[in-house]
Amino acid sequence: MPGVAVCPNSKRWSEFPFSPEHEHSLKRFLLPREKYKRYGYRTEKFSEEELLHKHEAYCKRCDAFALKPDDSVAYKQQLQCRIHPGKKLQQIWSCCRSTTIEYPGQPSGCRMFSRHDWTTNSDLPQKFWDLHHTPQFKPSSRSKQVRKAVSLDCEMATNRFDQPELIKLTLVDFFTKEVLIDAIVKPLVKIKNMITHIHGITYRDIISASNASTAILGRDAAREKIFEFVGPETMVFVHGGTNDFICLRWLHPAIVDTQEIESRVKRIGDDELDDWLDDEGTGLEAMCRLITGIQIRSGNTKYGNGVHDSLEDAMACRELGIWYADNLKGEVGMEVLGPPEADPPERSTSPPPLDEENKQFWDCKVCNLKIPKAAEQLHRKENSHIATLIMLIQQKGG
């Protein structure tokens, strides 16, 4: 795994050195704990009832587990009951002198049984789905002081239970742009689909990194690497990071989700940008391009055109955080930006009177034009309107 270094193409990304003012401006966007569940983040470990829904049966003999065990031939071929009857001494099995790696959920072994000994009483799902709170920071040779804020991005494959499985981890210091971690993660579970078309990472990449001793071995080791830099008070910036935390089996009390910010912040006077993001979506590429003016996944990464690179994505997430800190002033509430609105008037049972002058027109704040209401959607798609909108967004982001 590479050591701490400054992000490549560092000049492409904004400077945001640490200061108490900068730190306070970022803390405004911390996701309130009471809203974690609403946005898919967890605050506590899975309950026994939740674990029962994760996997329905477990093999007492080999600790394999499955969602829907049955007696079909296809299922038996996918998940055979195999064990090593011997003992493992210095990574070598005494029964067959093998060094075969065991994968949770589908162990390998030199002795095979025709069928599993299914039961629902096993602590394996607890081990597999055990979530870990951020521990208190302990200084180490790699980091003597805890980082105030970091940007995180993970690349994932799909394991044999159709769950996200970590295969690459990137962690960047928010204030210094130092690359703290940028490494392939070798999964310790069987992979069903690498989804290489998303991130460009192949089985061969993982094997090569493992042979070169640059890969992190498993999600637990990856999480421990993060804890070398992060403490409970460290702000962790992500963009739609629910799966990132789940695949790391990590519970953290200080999360800033730049995708979530857009859903709860209402920019006064920026209705057009809100509408535009509604059309484009709030994915990282669209938000970074429309809000900051920076194009990512454009073919300049080592993985090719349109493919995710976790380092670039972590820096893009950081860039969104900086834009919000610089451009959104005051305290950011859960629904609106700015002073609280007055209590709404009591509702009337009769409909409000229509304004005869304006009821058939729509005010385009981008072009400063009054457009017939019937032509609103056509005007939004006109090239002149789109070009003006993008120019205004980039000016605001600068």
TrEMBL record:
GO terms for biological process: ribosomal large subunit assembly; rRNA processing. InterPro entries: REXO1/3/4-like, Ribonucl_H, RNaseH-like_sf, RNaseH_sf. SUPFAM superfamilies: Ribonuclease H-like (SSF53098). Residues 148-330 form the Exonuclease domain. Residues 335-357 are annotated as: Disordered. It comes from the Eukaryota. GO terms for cellular component: nucleus. This is Exonuclease domain-containing protein. The lineage of its organism: Eukaryota, Fungi, Dikarya, Ascomycota, Pezizomycotina.
